[in-house]
Amino acid sequence: MTALTAFLGTNLGRLVAGVVAFLVVATLIGQVMARTARSEKTLATLRNANARIRAWWVMVAVFGVAVGTGGTGSILMFAVVSFLAMREFMTLTPTASDDHAVLIFAFFIFAPIQYALVWAEWYGLFSILIPVYAFVAFATRAALSGNTQRFLERTATVQWGLMACVYCVSHTPALLILRIPDHPDAGATLLFYLVLVAQINDVMQYIWGKALGEHPVAPTVSPNKTWEGFVGGTLTTIGIGTALWWATPFSPLAALAMSTVITLLGFSGGLVMSAIKRDRGVKDFGAMIEGHGGILDRIDSLLFAAPVFFHLVRFFYQPYEWR
Amino acid sequence: MIAGGLAAFARMLSGASVRWTTPVTGARQRIWFGNHSSHLDFVLIWSALPRELRATARPVAGADYWGRGPIRRYVACNVFHAILVDRSDGPATPERASAAIDSIATQMGPGESIIVFPEGTRSRTGELLPFKSGMYHLSKRKPGVELVPVHLANLSRILPKGEMLPVPLHGRIVFGAPMYLEDGETKDAFLGRARAALLALKDA
Description:
Shape of chain B: globular
Strand content of chain B: 15-25%
Order of helices and strands of chain B: HEEHHEHHEHEHEHEH
Strand order of the largest sheet of chain A: 1-2
Distance between the termini of chain A: 37 Å
Oligomer: heterodimer
Number of strands of chain B: 7
Number of helices of chain A: 13
């Protein structure tokens, strides 16, 4: 009990408590509305919304356990997320049977090493392993296989999948490496802040889009992403992200800037992944999470936001001599 | 129990989802026939069957691979009760082919079903190869046997021929509608029909 009280006294604890309280309210509203809904269309929307809320509970529970078990738990959880995301990505990637070794490298060598480097807090190698060493290794191994058909396309897509699913995602738990003066536990709080703002943005874009959405941003990519959803969702999320400044090392103005970056890059991540799905002719990357599609559909807003957020925090908040 | 464990492991490795286009129920003698591209194939089909049908389903496997070495032999014969057939090198004479069919037909008990790969070997590219005639002769020997096509997607990428380590991509197992050998149907017509039924599941 005292451990819980102590946890709730921290900024991270307050954020978690806020999310749980919000989910309780959302669950109640969703259940009551589903019971009183009349039209078939509203009911279908509510069923989808309630499935999403249920999935949110599960995700919050998994996330809570991971963050609660300290750094190692979070790193392991994101390693699993990366692995499952890359699995969905590579399944849709048109590789040749000669690329088997390259895929083995991606899944069993580079992904585990990348997360081991986060765990070992070896920033220098962490930040270049995939852009430099995987880049060189994939191209060389693919050339050795002797198959030159669509060579660049094949090597580039595997590299892209590893970049997106492993390199980018690993920057989220890498926030735990950062040391910020006067904020001893800033890493865990920033990790939670990043995921929270990115996910709130998804929800807000969805709600605003459902309520007012009319003019699609890029109709050939995703008819569900509308200007109304984008503007409404972005402004609401930036408002919430700024209001949470007290939990972070940021000033209110800096929190506004950071949540703007997370929100805009969250949107672009979702848009780019939609373009890939459209090209491969699928609606979702998978069917792992009820109402949400695959795991990659759930984390697409984190892909671009995580590395940029990580480097902004590192550049502006970590003293030069501590790096 | 070992079979269940191996099946669960193969399912996890292949991340395979299962789809039945037509429900297949009730105990009867069946031939489950699938496209062949990896050593995981028969374990996967077996693992996707409902519990009550698993017990009677026996894979037909090449003795040249599954009969060699104590571990493979144990897994094939004791765990999955496989029927091993001889496909060793040498002239593919009609006598040898009919001897193989004889041995499968006699080993296949009255209530038992088999899992077969009518291409006879693993496809390197994932393209469906021409069918060997064994399934036709077997259907003639077992009148009324129900044939169910099973399409395995992506297995040629997960564990290509000649590779040791599987890549953990998502596989897909699709079961089609049962079919039967019609009265007076010729060998070519029947094999063509079976092959088309299996190919049709690719996009199902």
